[in-house]
Amino acid sequence: MSAATTRSRTPDRLCAEAVDLAREAAEEAAAPGVVGEHVAVVSEGDRVVTHFFECKEFGYRGWRWAVTVARASRAKLVTLDETVLLPGPDALQAPEWVPWSERLRPGDMGPGDLLPTEADDLRLEPGYTGEDAPPPNAVVSEELAERVEAEDAELADRSDVAAAGTARGSIASVADELGMRRARVLSRYGLHAAADRWEESFGGKTAMAQAAPASCVSCAFLVPIAGSLSQAFGICANEFGPADGHVVALDYGCGGHSEAAVMPKPPRPAAPVLDTVAPDPFALRPGSGGSVPDAPDATDDLGHS
């Protein structure tokens, strides 16, 4: 270790003793009664020392007033360098600033809020707007007509193009049908990002789907969507389901499946074993025979006096 390094780590004696000078500078920069006790002395270099004082300002817990003093070589006069308020090791500080584009979360937008998109947004890509195209009935050059016919060959059959009139008008109609008459359309990255979000919220790995009796692919409440996402997603139309109005994966499911609990028909009651409606005939005078003697006739003498 060199001698210069050793001298820089050892505070200069005259600068370290200039506590009163440092306090006066701190009190001049701060409000009265805000500068607290002297807490530390740190050597910044040869004959350069920083004095730290406790800060009693409300809202600045753990902050310290830092006053740096210095003196010239072979001089005994200590001069003031700078005064600043710095956070200490346990200071209360504001969180690190995050750009709004990274701080915004789904659901943060409210009525009247605007969310601009960047020109190089990875979720979007240029679409067909038709701004550079002539009107459908305009006269175009032969070279442009040939180029247009080549484009139409990729979108429709030759017979459809001939019947549609002008070639440029056919491209515009196909673009309208496909929903491409926009400045930008959703890119493949944007599709995959949206699919990942929907899969996480209403996918087959959720607890609701794991406990469901069947998946949405066989549910009558599933409304199909267009495009490539239709192979994996649809829209739930069950007002009593947890995903009503949301995009759900085909392997998602819930207890509101259309075939989960079909109400059975009420069972028909069985015929009664004992007929309790019609009376059962019983003879008042049973026939002779058996162990019970016949009852005496009413005209016989009963033996009474």
Query: How would you spell out the order of helices and strands?
Result: HHHEEEEHEHHHEHHEEE
Distance between the termini: 154 Å
**Count of distinct strands:** 9
Q: Report on the biggest sheet.
A: 4 strands, antiparallel
What's the helix count? 9
Average predicted local confidence, pLDDT: 77
Widest sheet: strand ordering: 1-2-3-4
Give the helix/strand class: alpha+beta
Uncertain ranges: 1-7
Cα-atom radius of gyration: 47 Å
Helical content class: 10-25%
Tell the overall outline: elongated
Strand residue percentage: 15-25%
In a nutshell, what does this entry contain?
The protein is an alpha+beta fold and 305 residues long. 25% of the residues lie in helices and 17% in strands. α5 (142-155) runs parallel beside α7 (167-178).
Structure description:
The protein has a 4-stranded antiparallel sheet. It has a 3-stranded antiparallel sheet with strand order 7-8-9. Helices cover 25% and strands 17% of the residues. The N terminus is likely disordered. The protein is built from 9 helices and 9 strands. It has 305 residues and is an alpha+beta fold.
Task: Pick out its properties.
3-stranded antiparallel β-sheet, single chain, 4-stranded antiparallel β-sheet, 9 helices, 9 strands, disordered N terminus, elongated, alpha+beta, 305 residues
Question: What is the secondary structure topology, with strand pairs?
Answer:
Elements: H1 3-9, H2 13-16, H3 19-29, E1 35-45, E2 48-55, E3 63-70, E4 79-87, H4 100-103, E5 124-126, H5 142-155, H6 158-163, H7 167-178, E6 184-186, H8 188-201, H9 207-210, E7 222-224, E8 233-236, E9 247-249
Antiparallel strand pairs: 1-2, 2-3, 3-4, 5-6, 7-8, 8-9
Helix pairs in contact: 5-7
